[in-house]
TrEMBL record:
EC category: transferase
Protein name, UniProt field: Threonylcarbamoyl-AMP synthase
Organism per entry: Brevibacillus panacihumi W25
Alphabetized UniProt keyword annotations: ATP-binding, Cytoplasm, Nucleotide-binding, Nucleotidyltransferase, Transferase, tRNA processing
Binding site for L-threonine: 48, 80, 134, 154, 194
A molecular-function term among this protein's GO annotations: L-threonylcarbamoyladenylate synthase
Amino acid sequence: MDLHEATQVWIVDNDVENDVEKIQSCSQIVDAACLLRDGEVVAFPTETVYGLGANALSNESVEKIFLAKGRPSDNPLIVHIGDKGQLSTVARDVPEKGDRLMEAFWPGPLTIILPKTDRVASLVTAGLDSVGVRMPDHPLALALIREAGVPIAAPSANRSGRPSPTTADHVMTDLNGRVAGVLDGGPTGIGVESTVIDVTVDPPVILRPGGVTKEQLEEVIGPVELDPSFQVGAVETPRAPGMKYTHYAPEGEMWLIEGTPGHVRVRQADMLRAAKENGLRTGVLVTDASAAYWEQNADADVVLSVGSADHLDQVAQQLYAVLRKFDEEKVQYIVSETFPRVGLGMAVMNRLEKAAGGRILSV
């Protein structure tokens, strides 16, 4: 791919960062939007993670996303819009349940699978007849999309398979010199990607758990189903990002251990000792409640907490940063705690299972 001599980084003034109209007129937004219209790729913050954006109506532009990320071309992208007026450009025949979800959760961390229009670049949908669309709940993202004047296709702004970026520094670590620019909006809020729900079928099906929970969706539209493809390797044709390949993974081998707390801790210690005997630098991903124990235990070289298990929003927000920290610490072997698969815990566990490549032990 063509490398950029230097990736431009823009920081928007703090005094306008929550006013979309003021932001849209900022020179940083105008410059970034100009690059998008010219067919370049630009990373930007959303309320979930940083996205890597390109004009969703241009195959030539979208191809640069795949090249920059090293992403398989059969993995579809989500299209981001800046207002409801852009929806008809990319989607048609919106079901009534889709309208209700938009009313309840847009702007926000919900991607809705809809029948696509012919204007959507074929690379965006990986040849499918449907497209995932969302309206991000972040003033910089909305201002950028509106100023660009086109819907923006944007997966997470990281090298394919790596933990998603929740800061501009994460983006630069992975993509410096591979993209035209990065819009720095500080750390993201939610920390895990949007929920993806397919409303082209009835009952609707969650293809990826995320910032909007199954319980919240059912309050608005009634029963929804869970796609079995949450498990690694369960499908051959992804219908949404993150369904087919190992994602979010640290460089070290990672294992999830689930069961009663006492049995989990014993098995984790045994695995860590065995790894150290094989000369590996070890790490353990824990919650605040068990961090003190592991910090006093010599079995793990690096102990990192993702926060309190009682506050899964905190866990989700910190998860990717912690996975990246293991890489910074050169950890080669990681064992992790698990979380209940309800509410936001479903999204957290989905990301952990993908990060571990399906390596899960029950004790």
